[in-house]
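Reply to dn_fold:

You asked what the input looked like. This is it:
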Amino acid sequence: MVARDPGRSEALRSLAPSTTMKFVQIVDAEQAFEGAAAIINASPLGMVGAEPMPDMLVDAVGRHAAAATIFDLVTTPIETAFLVAGRAGGGLPVDGLTMLVGQAARAFELFFGARPPAPGKELRNLLIPKGNQ
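and this is what came back:
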């Protein structure tokens, strides 16, 4: 796992003590991404109102994206530097809205007492602010 603060990341070990985890700093992302089947951004880096993703990390994503799934959990903006680099590097980009829609299906049923709209372009368009589609 590439972490901004590997010391803080160590707390994850207690949540899954039998899982092998290796934490590296952003400067070591190049090594961490080598041969990866998936590269996932689960941080707020690159989100509106948050720090931008460091260039060295974006560049490493682009260099190691070929044939990998590039998943950015950031929802605003939909198109992030992380996803742009991954797509340019030959990866399969998956945006944060995909995660949001997946998590929201059950909540929709509970809130509205109806099945949610089928995942697809229509639902995505409902969730993307006008002008960003």
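The two ends are 32 Å apart (CA to CA).
Hope that clears it up.
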